[in-house]
Amino acid sequence: MQVTKCDDPLLEAWARTLARHRNRAAIFATSGKVARTFSEIESEAQSIVNEVSIFEPGNVVAIQIGNQPSWPAFLLACLRKRIVVLPLEAS
After folding, report:
1. DSSP per-residue letters across 4-72
2. pLDDT classification of 90: cutoffs 50, 70, 90
3. CA gap 2, 61 in Å, rounded
């Protein structure tokens, strides 16, 4: 994978991390089982980009996602669309 230059330091860091650790475990379940690899997070983020496209760049989106393995993919998708994420905790 080629690392592309962008103006978001988090996305740049993600691209470097993905290039180095694509098939390694990224998120573990409480049981110790692998919940997501880095490439699975990337695939999920790419599919979520279409869902968040209903928002305009600069919009603020509040999410109550908790400790779900999908939150990194959601954050990446929003960063790519320049949507501001406001994570909320129910408690």
Report:
1. PP-S-HHHHHHHHHHHHHTTSEEEE-TTS-EEEEHHHHHHHHHHHHHHHTTSPTT-EEEE--TT-TTHH
2. confident
3. 30
